[in-house]
Task: inverse folding
Protein backbone atom coordinates (compact mmCIF):
# COMPACT_ATOMS: atom_id res chain seq x y z
CA UNK A 1 0.00 0.00 0.00
CA UNK A 2 2.29 2.87 1.18
CA UNK A 3 1.14 6.50 1.23
CA UNK A 4 1.66 10.03 -0.08
CA UNK A 5 1.76 13.44 1.57
CA UNK A 6 2.04 17.08 0.42
CA UNK A 7 2.42 20.36 2.31
CA UNK A 8 2.24 23.95 1.08
CA UNK A 9 2.14 26.89 3.45
CA UNK A 10 4.20 29.39 5.36
CA UNK A 11 6.16 26.99 7.58
CA UNK A 12 9.25 24.91 6.81
CA UNK A 13 7.88 21.84 5.04
CA UNK A 14 10.42 19.18 6.12
CA UNK A 15 9.40 18.66 9.79
CA UNK A 16 5.72 18.70 8.86
CA UNK A 17 6.18 16.16 6.03
CA UNK A 18 8.14 13.82 8.32
CA UNK A 19 5.57 14.08 11.12
CA UNK A 20 2.72 13.32 8.71
CA UNK A 21 4.61 10.36 7.19
CA UNK A 22 5.19 8.88 10.64
CA UNK A 23 1.41 8.79 11.15
CA UNK A 24 1.00 6.83 7.91
CA UNK A 25 3.61 4.10 8.55
CA UNK A 26 0.83 1.63 9.50
CA UNK A 27 0.00 1.60 5.74
CA UNK A 28 3.40 -0.02 5.21
CA UNK A 29 6.87 1.47 5.12
CA UNK A 30 9.95 -0.36 3.79
CA UNK A 31 11.40 2.91 2.46
CA UNK A 32 10.46 6.58 2.44
CA UNK A 33 11.48 9.97 1.13
CA UNK A 34 10.73 13.69 0.86
CA UNK A 35 11.29 16.44 -1.68
CA UNK A 36 11.17 20.13 -0.76
CA UNK A 37 11.05 23.12 -3.10
CA UNK A 38 13.21 26.08 -2.06
CA UNK A 39 15.16 27.61 -4.99
CA UNK A 40 15.13 24.20 -6.64
CA UNK A 41 13.86 20.76 -5.71
CA UNK A 42 15.92 19.06 -2.99
CA UNK A 43 15.22 15.42 -2.26
CA UNK A 44 16.20 12.83 0.34
CA UNK A 45 15.06 9.21 0.35
CA UNK A 46 16.24 5.79 1.50
CA UNK A 47 15.19 2.24 2.39
CA UNK A 48 14.60 3.14 6.05
CA UNK A 49 11.63 3.93 8.29
CA UNK A 50 10.52 7.52 8.83
CA UNK A 51 12.19 7.90 12.24
CA UNK A 52 15.54 6.89 10.71
CA UNK A 53 15.10 9.22 7.75
CA UNK A 54 14.29 12.12 10.08
CA UNK A 55 17.55 11.44 11.93
CA UNK A 56 19.85 11.38 8.88
CA UNK A 57 18.16 13.68 6.33
CA UNK A 58 19.97 17.01 5.68
CA UNK A 59 18.02 20.21 6.22
CA UNK A 60 16.00 20.87 3.06
CA UNK A 61 14.81 24.46 3.00
CA UNK A 62 11.40 25.44 1.63
CA UNK A 63 7.73 25.86 2.57
CA UNK A 64 6.29 23.36 0.09
CA UNK A 65 7.09 19.70 -0.40
CA UNK A 66 5.95 16.14 -0.87
CA UNK A 67 6.68 12.85 0.89
CA UNK A 68 6.07 9.13 0.66
CA UNK A 69 6.17 5.88 2.60
CA UNK A 70 6.64 2.89 0.33
CA UNK A 71 5.49 -0.70 0.48
CA UNK A 72 7.29 -2.03 -2.53
CA UNK A 73 5.28 -3.44 -5.41
CA UNK A 74 7.72 -3.15 -8.32
CA UNK A 75 11.42 -3.17 -7.44
CA UNK A 76 12.87 -4.10 -4.05
CA UNK A 77 13.05 -1.59 -1.19
CA UNK A 78 16.15 0.49 -2.01
CA UNK A 79 17.31 4.11 -2.11
CA UNK A 80 16.87 4.35 -5.89
CA UNK A 81 13.39 2.74 -5.90
CA UNK A 82 12.14 4.91 -3.02
CA UNK A 83 9.94 7.90 -3.82
CA UNK A 84 9.89 10.77 -4.78
CA UNK A 85 10.82 10.09 -8.40
CA UNK A 86 12.08 12.80 -10.77
CA UNK A 87 11.91 13.63 -14.47
CA UNK A 88 15.05 13.87 -16.65
CA UNK A 89 15.94 17.39 -15.45
CA UNK A 90 15.04 17.03 -11.78
CA UNK A 91 12.41 19.78 -12.10
CA UNK A 92 9.36 17.56 -11.52
CA UNK A 93 9.04 15.33 -8.45
CA UNK A 94 6.25 12.82 -7.91
CA UNK A 95 5.07 10.57 -5.08
CA UNK A 96 2.60 7.80 -5.92
CA UNK A 97 0.47 5.28 -4.07
CA UNK A 98 -1.07 2.56 -6.24
CA UNK A 99 -0.05 0.28 -9.10
CA UNK A 100 0.39 1.25 -12.75
CA UNK A 101 -0.50 -1.86 -14.69
CA UNK A 102 0.69 -0.62 -18.12
CA UNK A 103 3.98 0.88 -16.92
CA UNK A 104 6.11 -1.53 -18.97
CA UNK A 105 4.83 -0.31 -22.32
CA UNK A 106 4.74 3.37 -21.18
CA UNK A 107 8.39 3.04 -20.11
CA UNK A 108 9.35 1.47 -23.46
CA UNK A 109 7.63 4.35 -25.29
CA UNK A 110 9.27 7.07 -23.14
CA UNK A 111 12.73 5.51 -23.50
CA UNK A 112 12.26 5.51 -27.29
CA UNK A 113 11.48 9.24 -26.94
CA UNK A 114 14.79 9.83 -25.11
CA UNK A 115 13.76 9.66 -21.43
CA UNK A 116 16.23 8.04 -19.00
CA UNK A 117 15.02 5.83 -16.19
CA UNK A 118 16.98 5.02 -13.00
CA UNK A 119 14.62 2.79 -10.98
CA UNK A 120 12.71 -0.49 -11.36
CA UNK A 121 9.46 1.11 -10.23
CA UNK A 122 6.19 1.52 -12.09
CA UNK A 123 5.87 5.03 -10.61
CA UNK A 124 8.85 6.57 -12.43
CA UNK A 125 6.86 6.79 -15.67
CA UNK A 126 4.68 9.54 -14.11
CA UNK A 127 7.23 12.40 -13.79
CA UNK A 128 8.45 11.57 -17.30
CA UNK A 129 4.91 11.65 -18.72
CA UNK A 130 4.28 15.02 -16.99
CA UNK A 131 7.56 16.32 -18.42
CA UNK A 132 6.46 15.09 -21.90
CA UNK A 133 3.13 16.95 -21.70
CA UNK A 134 4.24 20.09 -19.82
CA UNK A 135 3.47 23.28 -21.80
CA UNK A 136 3.55 25.84 -18.95
CA UNK A 137 0.49 24.58 -17.02
CA UNK A 138 1.17 21.90 -14.42
CA UNK A 139 -2.37 20.68 -13.81
CA UNK A 140 -3.00 20.25 -17.55
CA UNK A 141 0.24 18.26 -17.87
CA UNK A 142 -0.82 16.04 -14.95
CA UNK A 143 -4.27 15.50 -16.50
CA UNK A 144 -2.66 14.49 -19.80
CA UNK A 145 -0.22 12.16 -18.03
CA UNK A 146 -2.87 10.28 -16.03
CA UNK A 147 -4.90 9.77 -19.20
CA UNK A 148 -2.11 7.42 -20.37
CA UNK A 149 -1.99 5.52 -17.08
CA UNK A 150 -3.93 2.25 -16.46
CA UNK A 151 -4.24 1.09 -12.85
CA UNK A 152 -4.59 2.81 -9.51
CA UNK A 153 -2.97 6.01 -8.34
CA UNK A 154 -2.91 8.75 -5.74
CA UNK A 155 -0.18 11.18 -6.77
CA UNK A 156 1.20 14.50 -5.57
CA UNK A 157 3.32 16.54 -7.97
CA UNK A 158 5.85 19.28 -7.23
CA UNK A 159 7.50 21.32 -9.98
CA UNK A 160 10.28 23.85 -9.68
CA UNK A 161 8.98 27.34 -10.39
CA UNK A 162 5.36 26.37 -9.74
CA UNK A 163 3.88 27.82 -6.49
CA UNK A 164 1.32 25.00 -6.26
CA UNK A 165 1.00 21.29 -5.64
CA UNK A 166 -1.10 19.18 -8.01
CA UNK A 167 -2.74 15.93 -6.85
CA UNK A 168 -4.79 13.30 -8.68
CA UNK A 169 -6.49 10.05 -7.71
CA UNK A 170 -8.04 6.91 -9.14
CA UNK A 171 -8.74 3.81 -7.01
CA UNK A 172 -6.35 4.95 -4.26
CA UNK A 173 -7.53 7.19 -1.41
CA UNK A 174 -6.55 10.88 -1.34
CA UNK A 175 -7.67 13.76 0.87
CA UNK A 176 -6.92 17.47 1.13
CA UNK A 177 -6.52 18.94 4.61
CA UNK A 178 -7.59 22.56 4.97
CA UNK A 179 -5.41 24.76 7.18
CA UNK A 180 -4.96 28.43 7.89
CA UNK A 181 -2.53 29.88 5.26
CA UNK A 182 -1.44 26.26 4.65
CA UNK A 183 -2.92 23.14 3.11
CA UNK A 184 -2.15 19.43 3.14
CA UNK A 185 -2.60 16.51 0.74
CA UNK A 186 -2.53 12.97 2.17
CA UNK A 187 -3.44 9.33 1.54
CA UNK A 188 -5.35 9.17 4.79
CA UNK A 189 -6.70 11.29 7.62
CA UNK A 190 -4.31 10.26 10.44
CA UNK A 191 -1.47 12.13 8.68
CA UNK A 192 -2.90 15.60 9.11
CA UNK A 193 -4.92 15.41 12.34
CA UNK A 194 -2.15 17.19 14.27
CA UNK A 195 -2.75 20.26 12.04
CA UNK A 196 -6.40 20.29 11.02
CA UNK A 197 -9.67 18.37 11.29
CA UNK A 198 -11.13 19.88 8.10
CA UNK A 199 -10.79 17.64 5.04
CA UNK A 200 -12.00 17.22 1.51
CA UNK A 201 -12.17 13.70 0.08
CA UNK A 202 -11.09 13.61 -3.58
CA UNK A 203 -13.11 11.31 -5.83
CA UNK A 204 -11.78 9.05 -8.59
CA UNK A 205 -10.84 11.23 -11.57
CA UNK A 206 -10.41 14.40 -9.48
CA UNK A 207 -7.35 16.62 -9.87
CA UNK A 208 -6.58 19.00 -6.99
CA UNK A 209 -4.61 22.24 -7.40
CA UNK A 210 -3.43 23.45 -3.99
CA UNK A 211 -1.72 26.68 -2.95
CA UNK A 212 -1.28 28.04 0.63
CA UNK A 213 -4.58 29.93 0.39
CA UNK A 214 -6.64 28.08 -2.20
CA UNK A 215 -7.86 24.65 -3.17
CA UNK A 216 -9.34 23.98 -6.62
CA UNK A 217 -10.72 20.61 -7.68
CA UNK A 218 -10.96 19.87 -11.42
CA UNK A 219 -12.63 17.05 -13.28
CA UNK A 220 -11.97 16.61 -16.99
CA UNK A 221 -10.45 20.10 -16.91
CA UNK A 222 -13.53 21.74 -15.35
CA UNK A 223 -13.67 23.09 -11.82
CA UNK A 224 -16.02 21.17 -9.46
CA UNK A 225 -17.10 21.53 -5.83
CA UNK A 226 -16.31 18.98 -3.15
CA UNK A 227 -17.82 18.94 0.33
CA UNK A 228 -15.69 19.77 3.38
CA UNK A 229 -15.87 17.28 6.27
CA UNK A 230 -14.97 17.70 9.96
CA UNK A 231 -13.03 14.70 11.39
CA UNK A 232 -14.05 13.57 14.89
CA UNK A 233 -11.60 10.64 15.18
CA UNK A 234 -8.37 10.35 17.13
CA UNK A 235 -5.23 9.44 15.12
CA UNK A 236 -5.46 5.79 16.25
CA UNK A 237 -9.14 5.56 15.32
CA UNK A 238 -8.36 7.10 11.95
CA UNK A 239 -5.61 4.53 11.27
CA UNK A 240 -8.29 1.89 11.62
CA UNK A 241 -10.57 3.96 9.37
CA UNK A 242 -13.17 3.97 12.12
CA UNK A 243 -13.12 0.21 12.61
CA UNK A 244 -12.52 -0.95 16.19
CA UNK A 245 -9.79 -3.37 15.19
CA UNK A 246 -7.38 -3.78 12.26
CA UNK A 247 -8.74 -7.34 11.81
CA UNK A 248 -12.26 -6.04 11.05
CA UNK A 249 -10.86 -3.29 8.81
CA UNK A 250 -8.78 -5.87 6.89
CA UNK A 251 -11.76 -8.23 6.54
CA UNK A 252 -13.72 -5.35 4.98
CA UNK A 253 -10.88 -4.52 2.58
CA UNK A 254 -11.22 -7.86 0.78
CA UNK A 255 -13.44 -6.79 -2.16
CA UNK A 256 -10.76 -4.20 -3.03
CA UNK A 257 -7.91 -6.66 -2.40
CA UNK A 258 -9.52 -9.15 -4.79
CA UNK A 259 -9.91 -6.44 -7.46
CA UNK A 260 -6.31 -5.24 -6.97
CA UNK A 261 -4.76 -8.72 -7.10
CA UNK A 262 -6.81 -9.83 -10.10
CA UNK A 263 -6.36 -6.42 -11.73
CA UNK A 264 -2.59 -6.86 -11.58
CA UNK A 265 -2.39 -10.32 -13.09
CA UNK A 266 -5.13 -10.35 -15.68
CA UNK A 267 -3.16 -7.52 -17.36
CA UNK A 268 0.13 -9.35 -17.59
CA UNK A 269 0.95 -10.70 -21.05
CA UNK A 270 4.28 -12.51 -20.56
CA UNK A 271 3.98 -15.55 -18.27
CA UNK A 272 4.99 -14.43 -14.77
CA UNK A 273 5.90 -17.90 -13.70
CA UNK A 274 7.12 -20.63 -15.95
CA UNK A 275 4.28 -23.00 -15.18
CA UNK A 276 3.86 -23.22 -18.93
CA UNK A 277 7.44 -24.46 -19.15
CA UNK A 278 6.77 -26.93 -16.37
CA UNK A 279 3.56 -28.11 -18.06
CA UNK A 280 5.31 -28.47 -21.42
CA UNK A 281 8.04 -30.43 -19.66
CA UNK A 282 5.26 -32.86 -18.78
CA UNK A 283 5.13 -31.87 -15.18
CA UNK A 284 4.28 -35.02 -13.25
CA UNK A 285 3.40 -33.26 -10.03
CA UNK A 286 3.62 -30.04 -8.14
CA UNK A 287 4.62 -29.42 -4.55
CA UNK A 288 3.12 -26.64 -2.41
CA UNK A 289 4.56 -25.69 0.98
CA UNK A 290 3.47 -23.20 3.64
CA UNK A 291 2.55 -22.68 7.30
CA UNK A 292 -0.63 -21.75 9.16
CA UNK A 293 -3.21 -19.87 7.11
CA UNK A 294 -0.98 -19.93 4.03
CA UNK A 295 -0.90 -23.74 4.32
CA UNK A 296 -4.71 -23.75 4.20
CA UNK A 297 -4.56 -21.62 1.04
CA UNK A 298 -2.18 -24.19 -0.45
CA UNK A 299 -4.60 -27.01 0.41
CA UNK A 300 -7.35 -25.16 -1.49
CA UNK A 301 -4.81 -24.55 -4.30
CA UNK A 302 -4.48 -28.32 -4.58
CA UNK A 303 -8.17 -28.73 -5.47
CA UNK A 304 -8.03 -25.85 -7.96
CA UNK A 305 -4.83 -26.95 -9.74
CA UNK A 306 -5.79 -30.63 -9.82
CA UNK A 307 -9.16 -29.79 -11.36
CA UNK A 308 -7.88 -27.29 -13.94
CA UNK A 309 -4.39 -28.56 -14.77
CA UNK A 310 -5.13 -32.23 -14.04
CA UNK A 311 -1.70 -32.34 -12.37
CA UNK A 312 -1.33 -34.03 -8.96
CA UNK A 313 -0.39 -31.57 -6.21
CA UNK A 314 1.39 -32.52 -2.98
CA UNK A 315 0.85 -30.06 -0.14
CA UNK A 316 3.23 -30.14 2.82
CA UNK A 317 3.53 -28.24 6.08
CA UNK A 318 6.79 -26.33 5.65
CA UNK A 319 7.95 -26.99 9.20
CA UNK A 320 7.59 -30.74 8.62
CA UNK A 321 9.19 -30.68 5.18
CA UNK A 322 12.75 -30.73 6.43
CA UNK A 323 12.15 -34.16 7.97
CA UNK A 324 10.99 -35.72 4.68
CA UNK A 325 13.04 -37.61 2.21
CA UNK A 326 15.06 -35.76 -0.38
CA UNK A 327 12.76 -33.91 -2.81
CA UNK A 328 13.13 -35.04 -6.42
CA UNK A 329 15.49 -32.78 -8.37
CA UNK A 330 13.57 -30.59 -10.79
CA UNK A 331 10.40 -30.73 -8.72
CA UNK A 332 8.34 -27.62 -9.28
CA UNK A 333 7.47 -26.06 -5.94
CA UNK A 334 5.28 -23.19 -4.84
CA UNK A 335 5.96 -21.75 -1.38
CA UNK A 336 3.20 -19.50 0.02
CA UNK A 337 4.06 -17.02 2.76
CA UNK A 338 2.28 -13.71 3.50
CA UNK A 339 5.20 -12.13 5.32
CA UNK A 340 7.92 -13.75 3.22
CA UNK A 341 9.91 -14.11 6.45
CA UNK A 342 8.51 -17.26 8.08
CA UNK A 343 11.58 -19.26 9.08
CA UNK A 344 10.06 -22.67 8.30
CA UNK A 345 9.07 -21.53 4.81
CA UNK A 346 12.51 -20.05 4.13
CA UNK A 347 14.20 -23.24 5.31
CA UNK A 348 12.02 -25.26 2.92
CA UNK A 349 12.94 -22.96 0.02
CA UNK A 350 16.65 -23.35 0.76
CA UNK A 351 16.29 -27.13 0.95
CA UNK A 352 14.46 -27.26 -2.39
CA UNK A 353 16.99 -25.03 -4.07
CA UNK A 354 19.71 -27.24 -2.64
CA UNK A 355 18.48 -30.01 -4.94
CA UNK A 356 17.83 -27.79 -7.97
CA UNK A 357 14.10 -27.53 -7.59
CA UNK A 358 12.40 -24.56 -9.23
CA UNK A 359 10.78 -22.53 -6.44
CA UNK A 360 8.03 -19.99 -6.99
CA UNK A 361 7.18 -17.86 -3.95
CA UNK A 362 3.71 -16.34 -3.47
CA UNK A 363 4.16 -13.51 -0.95
CA UNK A 364 2.63 -10.21 0.09
CA UNK A 365 5.86 -8.38 0.86
CA UNK A 366 8.13 -7.13 -1.90
CA UNK A 367 11.77 -7.44 -0.97
CA UNK A 368 11.08 -10.06 1.68
CA UNK A 369 13.62 -12.86 2.07
CA UNK A 370 11.35 -15.37 0.32
CA UNK A 371 11.09 -13.08 -2.72
CA UNK A 372 14.86 -12.80 -2.79
CA UNK A 373 15.77 -16.49 -2.50
CA UNK A 374 12.99 -17.99 -4.66
CA UNK A 375 13.51 -18.40 -8.42
CA UNK A 376 10.41 -16.41 -9.16
CA UNK A 377 7.91 -14.46 -7.07
CA UNK A 378 4.24 -13.65 -7.47
CA UNK A 379 3.04 -10.86 -5.23
CA UNK A 380 -0.39 -10.78 -3.67
CA UNK A 381 -1.80 -7.24 -3.49
CA UNK A 382 -3.36 -7.34 -0.05
CA UNK A 383 -1.48 -4.28 1.26
CA UNK A 384 -0.03 -4.30 4.77
CA UNK A 385 -1.77 -6.74 7.11
CA UNK A 386 -1.46 -5.47 10.67
CA UNK A 387 -3.67 -7.89 12.60
CA UNK A 388 -1.89 -11.13 13.56
CA UNK A 389 -4.83 -13.12 12.23
CA UNK A 390 -4.35 -13.39 8.48
CA UNK A 391 -7.53 -12.55 6.59
CA UNK A 392 -7.19 -10.47 3.40
CA UNK A 393 -3.78 -11.99 2.62
CA UNK A 394 -5.44 -15.44 2.51
CA UNK A 395 -8.04 -14.26 0.00
CA UNK A 396 -5.33 -12.61 -2.10
CA UNK A 397 -3.36 -15.89 -2.08
CA UNK A 398 -6.44 -17.70 -3.39
CA UNK A 399 -6.81 -15.13 -6.18
CA UNK A 400 -3.24 -15.82 -7.31
CA UNK A 401 -3.86 -19.59 -7.22
CA UNK A 402 -7.09 -19.20 -9.24
CA UNK A 403 -5.31 -17.00 -11.76
CA UNK A 404 -2.35 -19.38 -12.05
CA UNK A 405 -4.51 -22.45 -12.55
CA UNK A 406 -6.81 -20.70 -15.01
CA UNK A 407 -3.85 -19.31 -16.99
CA UNK A 408 -2.44 -22.79 -17.60
CA UNK A 409 -5.67 -24.72 -17.47
CA UNK A 410 -6.61 -27.75 -19.57
CA UNK A 411 -10.32 -27.14 -18.98
CA UNK A 412 -12.53 -26.41 -22.01
CA UNK A 413 -13.22 -22.87 -23.16
CA UNK A 414 -16.83 -22.84 -21.86
CA UNK A 415 -15.75 -23.87 -18.36
CA UNK A 416 -12.94 -21.32 -18.36
CA UNK A 417 -15.25 -18.55 -19.56
CA UNK A 418 -17.74 -19.27 -16.76
CA UNK A 419 -14.93 -19.38 -14.20
CA UNK A 420 -13.56 -16.05 -15.44
CA UNK A 421 -17.00 -14.53 -15.08
CA UNK A 422 -17.28 -16.01 -11.57
CA UNK A 423 -13.89 -14.59 -10.62
CA UNK A 424 -14.91 -11.11 -11.77
CA UNK A 425 -18.06 -11.31 -9.64
CA UNK A 426 -16.20 -12.30 -6.47
CA UNK A 427 -15.71 -8.76 -5.09
CA UNK A 428 -19.47 -8.15 -5.08
CA UNK A 429 -20.17 -11.64 -3.69
CA UNK A 430 -17.75 -10.99 -0.82
CA UNK A 431 -19.42 -7.63 -0.25
CA UNK A 432 -22.71 -9.50 0.16
CA UNK A 433 -21.14 -11.61 2.91
CA UNK A 434 -19.81 -8.46 4.60
CA UNK A 435 -23.31 -6.97 4.40
CA UNK A 436 -24.71 -9.97 6.34
CA UNK A 437 -22.53 -9.09 9.35
CA UNK A 438 -25.52 -8.78 11.72
CA UNK A 439 -26.58 -12.40 11.30
CA UNK A 440 -23.00 -13.51 11.87
CA UNK A 441 -22.85 -11.37 15.02
CA UNK A 442 -25.90 -13.27 16.40
CA UNK A 443 -24.17 -16.59 15.68
CA UNK A 444 -21.04 -15.29 17.39
CA UNK A 445 -23.00 -14.41 20.53
CA UNK A 446 -24.21 -18.02 20.57
CA UNK A 447 -20.77 -19.49 19.91
CA UNK A 448 -18.92 -17.31 22.43
CA UNK A 449 -20.20 -19.30 25.40
CA UNK A 450 -18.58 -22.58 24.30
CA UNK A 451 -14.98 -23.75 24.92
CA UNK A 452 -14.78 -26.57 22.36
CA UNK A 453 -15.92 -26.41 18.73
CA UNK A 454 -15.51 -28.56 15.61
CA UNK A 455 -15.50 -27.25 12.06
CA UNK A 456 -16.29 -29.84 9.35
CA UNK A 457 -16.21 -29.83 5.57
CA UNK A 458 -15.61 -32.12 2.62
CA UNK A 459 -13.60 -31.67 -0.57
CA UNK A 460 -12.60 -28.06 -1.15
CA UNK A 461 -14.46 -27.13 2.06
CA UNK A 462 -12.19 -29.30 4.25
CA UNK A 463 -9.34 -26.73 4.22
CA UNK A 464 -12.02 -24.06 4.80
CA UNK A 465 -12.94 -25.92 8.01
CA UNK A 466 -9.27 -25.93 9.01
CA UNK A 467 -9.00 -22.17 8.38
CA UNK A 468 -12.24 -21.42 10.25
CA UNK A 469 -10.93 -23.35 13.25
CA UNK A 470 -7.56 -21.57 13.14
CA UNK A 471 -9.19 -18.12 13.03
CA UNK A 472 -11.45 -18.95 15.98
CA UNK A 473 -8.56 -20.44 17.97
CA UNK A 474 -6.14 -17.59 17.52
CA UNK A 475 -8.65 -14.76 18.09
CA UNK A 476 -11.17 -16.07 20.67
CA UNK A 477 -9.02 -18.66 22.46
CA UNK A 478 -11.79 -21.28 21.97
CA UNK A 479 -10.36 -24.78 21.39
CA UNK A 480 -11.50 -25.38 17.81
CA UNK A 481 -10.62 -28.22 15.47
CA UNK A 482 -11.14 -28.44 11.74
CA UNK A 483 -11.94 -31.90 10.46
CA UNK A 484 -12.72 -33.66 7.21
CA UNK A 485 -16.39 -34.43 7.87
CA UNK A 486 -15.98 -38.07 6.96
CA UNK A 487 -13.33 -38.46 9.66
CA UNK A 488 -15.55 -37.57 12.63
CA UNK A 489 -16.86 -41.10 12.96
CA UNK A 490 -13.27 -42.37 13.30
CA UNK A 491 -12.78 -40.79 16.72
CA UNK A 492 -14.01 -37.23 17.35
CA UNK A 493 -17.61 -38.46 17.64
CA UNK A 494 -16.57 -39.36 21.18
CA UNK A 495 -16.27 -35.65 22.00
CA UNK A 496 -19.64 -34.59 20.65
CA UNK A 497 -22.47 -33.50 22.88
CA UNK A 498 -24.41 -30.46 24.02
CA UNK A 499 -21.24 -28.54 24.98
CA UNK A 500 -19.49 -29.04 21.66
CA UNK A 501 -21.09 -27.25 18.72
CA UNK A 502 -20.18 -28.29 15.18
CA UNK A 503 -19.87 -25.76 12.37
CA UNK A 504 -20.55 -27.42 9.01
CA UNK A 505 -19.41 -25.85 5.73
CA UNK A 506 -21.94 -27.06 3.20
CA UNK A 507 -21.01 -26.14 -0.37
CA UNK A 508 -23.34 -26.92 -3.28
CA UNK A 509 -20.95 -29.38 -4.92
CA UNK A 510 -20.44 -33.14 -5.10
CA UNK A 511 -20.09 -33.25 -1.29
CA UNK A 512 -23.55 -31.80 -0.58
CA UNK A 513 -25.54 -34.99 0.11
CA UNK A 514 -22.74 -36.48 2.22
CA UNK A 515 -22.60 -33.27 4.31
CA UNK A 516 -26.35 -33.48 5.00
CA UNK A 517 -25.79 -36.99 6.33
CA UNK A 518 -22.83 -35.84 8.43
CA UNK A 519 -25.00 -33.14 10.00
CA UNK A 520 -27.71 -35.67 10.86
CA UNK A 521 -25.09 -37.94 12.50
CA UNK A 522 -23.68 -35.04 14.52
CA UNK A 523 -27.13 -33.95 15.62
CA UNK A 524 -27.88 -37.53 16.67
CA UNK A 525 -24.95 -37.28 19.09
CA UNK A 526 -26.35 -34.15 20.73
CA UNK A 527 -24.09 -31.46 19.29
CA UNK A 528 -25.73 -28.19 18.18
CA UNK A 529 -25.01 -27.48 14.50
CA UNK A 530 -24.25 -24.14 12.87
CA UNK A 531 -24.17 -24.45 9.07
CA UNK A 532 -22.66 -22.24 6.38
CA UNK A 533 -24.85 -22.78 3.34
CA UNK A 534 -25.75 -21.21 0.03
CA UNK A 535 -28.65 -18.75 -0.05
CA UNK A 536 -31.97 -20.48 -0.85
CA UNK A 537 -30.92 -23.82 0.65
CA UNK A 538 -34.05 -24.87 2.56
CA UNK A 539 -32.92 -28.39 3.45
CA UNK A 540 -30.15 -27.02 5.66
CA UNK A 541 -32.59 -24.76 7.50
CA UNK A 542 -34.53 -27.81 8.62
CA UNK A 543 -31.42 -29.62 9.85
CA UNK A 544 -29.14 -27.04 11.46
CA UNK A 545 -29.76 -25.00 14.63
CA UNK A 546 -28.23 -21.88 13.14
CA UNK A 547 -27.52 -21.05 9.49
CA UNK A 548 -25.20 -18.47 7.98
CA UNK A 549 -26.13 -18.08 4.30
CA UNK A 550 -23.56 -17.10 1.73
CA UNK A 551 -24.17 -15.97 -1.87
CA UNK A 552 -24.30 -18.50 -4.70
CA UNK A 553 -20.93 -18.94 -6.45
CA UNK A 554 -19.23 -21.65 -8.55
CA UNK A 555 -18.19 -24.47 -6.19
CA UNK A 556 -14.55 -23.68 -6.95
CA UNK A 557 -15.01 -20.21 -5.46
CA UNK A 558 -17.03 -21.32 -2.41
CA UNK A 559 -13.92 -21.13 -0.13
CA UNK A 560 -13.74 -17.37 -0.68
CA UNK A 561 -17.27 -16.51 0.50
CA UNK A 562 -17.21 -19.17 3.24
CA UNK A 563 -13.87 -18.08 4.70
CA UNK A 564 -14.89 -14.43 4.82
CA UNK A 565 -18.00 -15.45 6.78
CA UNK A 566 -15.82 -17.53 9.15
CA UNK A 567 -13.39 -14.63 9.60
CA UNK A 568 -16.30 -12.44 10.72
CA UNK A 569 -17.60 -15.22 12.98
CA UNK A 570 -14.18 -15.54 14.65
CA UNK A 571 -13.86 -11.75 14.98
CA UNK A 572 -17.26 -11.25 16.63
CA UNK A 573 -16.87 -14.30 18.88
CA UNK A 574 -13.52 -12.96 20.09
CA UNK A 575 -15.12 -9.55 20.61
CA UNK A 576 -17.90 -11.13 22.67
CA UNK A 577 -15.22 -12.75 24.81
CA UNK A 578 -13.25 -9.49 25.19
CA UNK A 579 -10.07 -10.88 23.58
CA UNK A 580 -7.17 -8.65 22.38
CA UNK A 581 -8.12 -9.33 18.77
CA UNK A 582 -5.29 -7.69 16.83
CA UNK A 583 -2.47 -9.07 18.98
CA UNK A 584 -3.49 -12.41 20.52
CA UNK A 585 -1.34 -13.84 23.30
CA UNK A 586 1.68 -15.96 22.42
CA UNK A 587 1.50 -15.16 18.65
CA UNK A 588 3.51 -13.03 16.23
CA UNK A 589 2.50 -11.71 12.80
CA UNK A 590 5.62 -13.17 11.26
CA UNK A 591 7.19 -16.25 12.86
CA UNK A 592 10.89 -15.78 12.16
CA UNK A 593 12.11 -18.60 14.38
CA UNK A 594 11.89 -22.36 13.65
C1 LIG B 1 -2.65 -16.86 10.64
O1 LIG B 1 -3.68 -16.06 11.01
C2 LIG B 1 -1.45 -16.77 11.48
N1 LIG B 1 -1.01 -15.46 11.64
C3 LIG B 1 -0.34 -17.74 11.09
O2 LIG B 1 -0.85 -19.04 11.08
C4 LIG B 1 0.31 -17.47 9.72
O3 LIG B 1 -0.55 -17.80 8.70
C5 LIG B 1 1.58 -18.32 9.61
O4 LIG B 1 2.46 -17.93 10.63
C6 LIG B 1 2.24 -18.19 8.25
O5 LIG B 1 2.66 -16.89 8.03
P1 LIG B 1 3.17 -16.44 6.57
O6 LIG B 1 2.04 -16.60 5.62
O7 LIG B 1 3.60 -15.02 6.76
O8 LIG B 1 4.32 -17.33 6.20
Result:
Amino acid sequence: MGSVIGYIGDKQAQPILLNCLAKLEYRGCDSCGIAVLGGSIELYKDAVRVKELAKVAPQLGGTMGIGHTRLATHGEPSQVNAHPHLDCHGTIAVVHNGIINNFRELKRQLISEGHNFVSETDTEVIPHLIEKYYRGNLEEAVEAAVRDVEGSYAIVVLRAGEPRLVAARKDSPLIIGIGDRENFIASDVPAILDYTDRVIYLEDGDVGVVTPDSIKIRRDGIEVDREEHKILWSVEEAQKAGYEHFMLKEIHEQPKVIRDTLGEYTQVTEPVVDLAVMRDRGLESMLMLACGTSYHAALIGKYIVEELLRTPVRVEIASEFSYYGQPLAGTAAIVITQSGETADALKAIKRLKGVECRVVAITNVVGSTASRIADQTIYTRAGPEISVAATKSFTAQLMVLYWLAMSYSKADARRLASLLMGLRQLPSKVQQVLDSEDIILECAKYLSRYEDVFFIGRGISFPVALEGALKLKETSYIHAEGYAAGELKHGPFALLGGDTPVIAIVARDNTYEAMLTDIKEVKARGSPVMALAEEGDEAIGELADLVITVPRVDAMFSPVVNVVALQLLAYYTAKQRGCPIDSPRNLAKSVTVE
User: Anything to note?
Assistant: The chain has a mean pLDDT of 92. Residues 475 and 580 are 8 Å apart (CA to CA). The pocket of 2-deoxy-2-amino glucitol-6-phosphate is lined by residues 291-294, 337-339, 342, 345, 388-390, 474, 590-591 (CB under 6 Å). The longest helix spans residues 413-435.
